[in-house]
From TrEMBL, chain A:
Location of this chain's protein in the cell: Cell inner membrane; Cell membrane
Principal location listed in the UniProt entry: membrane
This protein's GO CC annotations: plasma membrane
Domain of life: Bacteria
Keywords carried by this UniProt record: Cell inner membrane, Cell membrane, Membrane, Transmembrane, Transmembrane helix, Transport
Assigned protein family: Belongs to the binding-protein-dependent transport system permease family.
Lineage summary: Bacteria, Pseudomonadati, Pseudomonadota, Alphaproteobacteria, Rhodobacterales
PROSITE patterns: ABC_TM1
InterPro entries, per database record: MetI-like (IPR000515), MetI-like_sf (IPR035906)
Positions of the ABC transmembrane type-1 domain: 64-252
Name of protein: Putative spermidine/putrescine transport system permease protein
Automatic annotation (TrEMBL), chain B:
Protein name per the record: Putative spermidine/putrescine transport system permease protein
Annotated transmembrane regions: 16-40, 73-93, 102-125, 153-174, 195-225, 252-273
This protein's UniProt keywords: Cell membrane, Membrane, Transmembrane, Transmembrane helix, Transport
GO biological process, one term: transmembrane transport
Main subcellular location of this protein, as a coarse class: membrane
Domain ABC transmembrane type-1: 67-273
InterPro entries according to UniProt: MetI-like, MetI-like_sf
Protein family according to the UniProt entry: Belongs to the binding-protein-dependent transport system permease family. CysTW subfamily.
Gene3D superfamilies: MetI-like
Length: 260, 286
């Protein structure tokens, strides 16, 4: 683009828009190191007291553990189930099977409150409310579409003749998948896993309805705390959650570079 | 299913179903079953079949105003997302070197940050004695703190912030596919920058605008966290209507009928949009 007045104006606009996008994400970091109880900017002094109040509180620690267990296990299960489904969707020629893709992506389409109420309803019948199993299962469902979309994109870029060659040389589908297909679509599988992980870690609405008791997630506790008062401890937790997100973006960037 | 299929084809079909089964079971049990159940509940009263839950849409003004407010906010957020997202995607698609990954990275970082964290950040920024008000007061721009939060403004601001990446990403993907030669051709035929943009680039980028708008609009319709935390009771969206009916009144019939109506609207929007561009393209799998 040449630098005409209008393109300069465009760039200034974009810079402002990007600042607006990024400032709310980074503003939490200085707030979390503030020494003050009230939220002043810039903070009157620096301290680690909000991190101490987070790390020293058994309730926050229990919630963190719950959230991490849910995020790790549900993203791994979603990866296996979702990759299998994406592979089948890509393999099939039948229109009927391809339409199933719409069904499998439904969790992204249905408003999350409705999903949450529905899961609450079903779990109440089979007493899965406030259980680890129930929370993991719900997050498997919510994370699966990310794995399916990401793996489908990877499979479309993959040259299917390679798999045909492997099979004509006597490999069965199972072996051909693990030795020929999987190594090449690994970056998209990993992207899907990372997406599913972060979606489970950040999931709030379903957790508000179905988590509780000993199995309260971090986000549910944060939500409840925010409704009552703005405690700077939340800023410390938020900073850590954001750091995890940042790490994920870096992992993804490295991951997609490797695939090139 | 024709009878002419070979054993090989039949085995293939069985395997496809086997591979799809776990995913289908999860979605079937945790999503489709409850939706069907809610559909049934929405027509049931103490004496069997009833339309009472749907009649409330015409008698209870809270229902109507909640839907109207939800659609108004969804509309506002979508328009604002186009106006802000289009230039960002355009600059990212047109620049070279390190700029596209930097711009996209700046869009993606908030995308990856928890919705809850961002709602909290907006609370810190916009509240009565928040960062924005303090800065403006110190600079002498205002005497009284502005009321930026606990109203529709705060909700729209935070929702827009959270959903903007859903506009930028499909737009960027669409713009990247527009061949530069087409614009050069337009220019070589004597079109000025503005004319070429309006008659070549803008129409070709419309699929991206539609995909992004559908995602942003539909996601806003179901948003729960931001109106709950930033609306201060002044925004009462459909999602909150559903959750209040469960949490406070334990009214399953009412919550179900509201969910059914909202869901039908969401599906209708997707259906309409998929007449223009394929569903797979909206969801980014193609």
């Amino acid at each position: 683009m040449q630098l005409t007045p209008s393109s300069l104006a465009l760039r200034i606009f974009v810079v402002i828009a990007l600042l607006w996008l990024i400032i709310p994400v980074v503003i939490i970091v200085p707030m979390s190191f503030s020494s003050a109880r009230f939220l002043a900017f810039p903070p009157p002094g620096w301290s680690l007291r909000w991190y101490e109040s987070y790390l020293g509180d058994p309730a926050w620690m229990a919630a963190t553990r719950t959230s991490l267990i849910i995020a790790v296990s549900s993203s791994l299960i979603a990866t296996v189930i979702g990759t299998a489904a994406a592979y089948a969707l890509n393999m099939s020629q039948s229109r009927w099977v391809r339409n199933l893709q719409v069904v499998l992506l439904l969790p992204l389409v249905v408003p999350i409150v409705i999903t949450a109420v529905g899961i609450f309803l079903i779990y109440a019948q089979v007493s899965l409310i406030a259980t680890m199993t129930g929370l993991i299962l719900a997050n498997v469902m919510l994370g699966m579409p990310y794995v399916i979309t990401s793996v489908l994109v990877g499979l479309r870029k993959f040259d299917p003749t390679q798999e045909m060659v492997a099979r004509s040389l006597g490999m069965n589908r199972w072996r051909a998948f693990f030795t020929v297909v999987l190594p090449q679509i690994r970056p998209s599988v990993i992207t899907g896993t990372l997406f599913a992980f972060i979606s489970a870690l950040d999931e709030t609405v379903v957790a508000i309805f179905i988590s509780g008791g000993d199995n309260q997630t971090l986000t549910k506790r944060m939500f409840t705390a925010l409704r009552d008062e703005i405690d700077p401890t939340i800023a410390a937790i938020s900073t850590m959650l954001t750091a995890i997100s940042f790490l994920m973006v870096i992992l993804m960037a490295l991951n997609s570079r490797k695939s090139r | 299913m024709s009878n002419a299929s070979t054993p090989e084809e039949r085995r293939e079909r069985r395997m496809i179903l086997l591979l799809l089964a776990p995913a289908l079971i999860v979605v079937g049990l945790l999503l489709i079953t409850p939706l069907v159940w809610m559909g049934w509940q929405s027509f049931r009263g103490p004496e069997g079949f009833t339309l009472a839950h749907y009649a409330r849409f015409f008698t209870d003004t809270v229902y109507l105003s909640s839907f109207v407010q939800t659609f108004r906010i969804a509309f506002l957020v979508t328009i604002a997302a186009i106006l802000i997202g289009y230039p960002i995607a355009y600059v990212a698609a047109k620049s070279q070197g390190i700029w596209p990954p930097i711009i996209l990275g700046l869009v993606l970082l908030p995308f990856w940050t928890s919705v809850l964290v961002r709602a909290y950040a907006w609370l810190i920024l916009l509240q009565r004695r928040g960062i924005v008000n303090t800065a403006l007061t110190k600079a002498g721009v205002i005497d009284q703190p502005l009321i930026l939060v606990n109203n529709e403004f705060g909700t729209v601001m935070a929702t827009l912030h959270i959903l903007l990446p859903f506009m930028v990403l499909p737009l960027y993907a669409t713009m990247k596919k527009i061949p530069a030669e087409l614009e050069m051709a337009g220019a070589s035929l004597g079109g000025g920058g503005g004319l070429v943009f309006r008659s070549v680039f803008l129409p070709l980028s419309m699929p991206g605008v539609i995909a992004g708008s559908v995602l942003v609009f539909v996601l806003t319709l179901g948003f729960y966290i931001t109106p709950e935390l930033l609306g201060g009771g002044r925004t009462f969206l459909v999602s909150m209507l559903v959750s209040r009916n469960i949490e406070i009144y334990n009214e399953w019939g009412a919550a179900s009928s509201i969910s059914v109506v909202l869901l039908v609207m969401v599906f209708a929007i997707f259906r309409l949009a998929s007449m223009i561009i394929p569903f797979e393209r909206i969801m980014g799998t193609k």
